[in-house]
Amino acid sequence: MSERHPHHASYPELLACHECDTLSTIPALKPGRAARCRCCGHVLLRNPKGGLDRPIALYSAAFILLLLSNAFPFLTLEIQGRAEATNIFGASLAMYRAGMAELAVAVFLTTILAPALLIISSLYVLLGVRLRRPLPALRTVLSWISQLEPWVMLDVFMLGVLVAFVKLGNMATMHIGVSLFAFIGLILVSAAATAAFEPHLLWQRMAYGRARRHAG
């Protein structure tokens, strides 16, 4: 089912450029179009193709991949006939038991907790706006999303895994688990979801929905 776009932007919107603070009047944008600052060319507002359905689909896929990447073995190390399998949570737990509590907490926060909160929060806001439901604390959750994004470091963890491959290659036999492929997919899908997520468009639609409820 295609999304119906309400005529929420029948009036121009005034936005300040984040780069040069120039105020610009933004008219209603068609899907796939973007408005740029007339002074520095910085993108002020985008209306991505696919509307809200695209980021909803991408974040839903990211949520499934996040579950898969933590449900199955990530890597299996085989040393002298002894095999040891672990997942992402097991890796952080092993670091904690080895006396590296700070690193263990950082791995847990940046690869499990922060991605989970970001995906769930984004879906909560997107579905609330898409279904036009005044869900509790919708505006607050949307404001938190930008604070969560810097804590998601899936690519940094993947870089660490690649370094471990190189260093442990001569010491042990490593078998790639299903979770590693799911984790790689999670990185790619999360990047696409973030690119399709447009906060300004969501704020605009929430303001329109709120104005309609007050008018009714």
Tags for this model:
216 residues; alpha+beta; 3-stranded antiparallel sheet; 7 helices
Please give the share of residues in helix. 55-70%
Shape: elongated
**What distance lies between the first and last C-alpha atoms, to the nearest angstrom?**
27 Å
This entry's quaternary arrangement is single chain
Mean pLDDT: 80
How many DSSP H or I helices?
A: 7
Explain how this protein is built.
With about 220 residues, the protein is α+β, with helices and mostly antiparallel strands. Helices cover about 55% and strands about 15% of the residues. It is built from seven helices and seven strands. It has a three-stranded antiparallel sheet with strand order 6-5-7. Strands 1-2 form a two-stranded antiparallel ribbon. A hairpin with a 6-residue loop joins strand 3 and strand 4. Helix 1 packs antiparallel against helix 3 (about 100-130), helix 1 packs antiparallel against helix 6 and helix 3 (about 100-130) runs antiparallel to helix 4 (about 140-150). The radius of gyration is 21 Å and the shape is elongated. The two termini are about 25 Å apart.
